[in-house]
Design a protein that fits this description.
19% helix; 3-isopropylmalate dehydratase; two-stranded antiparallel sheet; single chain; Aconitase, domain 4; 7 helices; alpha/beta; EC 4.2.1.33; lyase; disordered N terminus; 11 strands; LeuD
């Protein structure tokens, strides 16, 4: 389902970020309904330098409850820790490389098609990436953490991109920066944590390194090199991703009715 005004996916339209900072402005795809380099007042590339402070719910809550602050849910530090092998990519990895358009007919809500979608994650990377994210004849990746450079997830809007990564077995992406739409779709679907590094980690890690992400301490540890890196806080979006996405979070917190058993 798509928004009639902006033609973005319904998931993307549910999240309207506030208090974001802009890093290295770049127009990566056509602008929104207002023209220029922004959509709903946001630049196509967002940074977590200032964590997003609230989520605006459209067409779900009564007008009196449109603004749903997440401060209460975010008061406790997330204890989550992710440990595994990393897969390293460079700058400007677009959604066509993450999941080519020919696979967008797969329906993520169908378990079989969800698994199949994951098997195609990052299949569009150029041949220069000699190590593939998913081995031939496999449906899951052995790399649970993707480390990327600048502008990860640029290109066309497709919520299948973070879904494909999650279906493949990835739990987090650590990038220097993100394209706005990929970042928002990652939060909306709850499939992967879109984390931002304070330095260019993609040039200091290599595919196959063993890493640990400690969300509560905002750090990534590369056990293969012994180096440790600071990550920018995920902030108020953590509870949304923890819940499994925007709709799951809204049901969990009572903002919309729970699904019938």
């Amino acid at each position: 389902m798509f928004c009639k005004l902006c033609r973005m996916s319904a998931f993307s339209c549910l999240i309207d970020s506030a208090a974001v900072s802009i890093s290295k402005p770049k127009q990566c795809f056509p602008s929104g309904i207002n023209g220029g380099n922004s959509f709903f007042g946001l630049h196509p590339k967002v940074s977590l330098s200032r964590s997003i402070s609230f989520i605006k719910m459209r067409s779900i809550l009564p007008k009196s409850r449109i603004y749903c602050t997440l401060e209460a849910a975010a008061t406790s530090t997330s204890p989550k820790t992710f440990h595994g092998l990393c897969y390293v990519v460079g700058d400007n990895i677009d959604t066509d490389q993450i999941i080519p358009a020919e696979y967008l007919t797969l329906v993520p809500s169908n378990p079989d098609e969800y698994e199949k979608l994951g098997s195609y994650a990052l299949i569009g990377l150029p041949s220069a990436y000699t190590t593939r994210f998913i081995e031939p004849n496999e449906t899951k990746t052995k790399y649970s953490i993707v480390i990327a450079g600048d502008n990860f997830g640029c290109g066309s809007s497709r919520e299948h991109a973070p879904v494909a990564l999650g279906a493949a077995g990835a739990v987090a992406v650590v990038a220097e920066s993100y394209a706005r739409i990929f970042f928002r779709n990652s939060v909306a679907t709850g499939e992967v944590y879109p984390l931002e590094s304070e330095v260019r980690i993609c040039e200091e890690c290599k595919t196959g390194d063993t890493v640990t992400i400690v969300l509560g301490e905002n750090k990534l540890i590369n056990h293969s090199t012994g180096k440790e890196y600071r990550l920018r806080p995920i902030g108020d979006l953590g509870p949304v991703i923890d819940a499994g996405g925007i709709f799951a979070y809204a049901r969990k917190t009572g903002m919309i009715p729970s699904q019938a058993a």
